[in-house]
Write a structure and sequence with these properties.
By secondary structure, the protein is mostly helical. It has helices at about 5-15, 20-30, 40-55, 60-75, 85, 110-115, 125-140, and strands spanning about 1-5, 35, 75-80, 100. It has one domain (about 1-140): 3-Layer(aba) Sandwich (Rossmann fold). It contains 7 helices and 4 strands. Strand 3, helix 5 and strand 4 (about 100) form a beta-alpha-beta unit.
Length: about 150
């Protein structure tokens, strides 16, 4: 699994209100759960183009770096809870994203509202992300390298 610094920054921010959320997220990367891919000038230019293209959503910087990285790696697979936006984004020459994990069912309405709006985190969105992560684990989801 690969990610960008912007994704790590957003994830630790969203997990800030979850007990040990930031530390656990950082530890995941430190343990090799995902590799951080640094931005290049070319990927930053592409991120800028994508932000402009999807301004009506709006696309945040973390999402733009993931789309740019997917294009660079030639993959259409993405790990995110942001099904709403990633179902809209397109990869040059690849069409739709394959989003993992699949949408989580049986969440409370408040959890769904917070977990699908990472670009506008409210004061309780970190808690919702924590509940979402616990539900994924309870439903048998495990991280895997792709």
């Amino acid at each position: 699994m690969v990610a960008t610094d912007a994704v790590l920054t957003e994830a630790t921010h969203l997990l800030g209100r979850v007990p040990s959320g930031r530390e656990t997220c950082t530890d995941f990367f430190l343990a090799g759960g995902a590799v951080l891919v640094p931005s290049t000038l070319a990927s930053l230019r592409r991120s800028r183009e994508l932000i402009e293209k999807y301004a009506d959503l709006p696309m945040d910087f973390a999402d733009s770096t993931l789309v740019a990285l997917a294009e660079e790696l030639g993959t259409n697979r993405v790990f995110t809870t942001d099904h709403r936006d990633f179902s809209v984004y397109r990869i040059v020459g690849r069409g739709h994203f394959v989003i993992e994990p699949p949408p989580v069912t049986n969440l409370e309405p408040e959890e769904v509202a917070h977990s699908t709006a990472p670009s506008s985190p409210g004061p309780r969105s970190g808690e919702a992300c924590g509940r979402l992560a616990r539900r994924l684990l309870q439903q048998g989801f495990h991280y895997r390298r792709i």
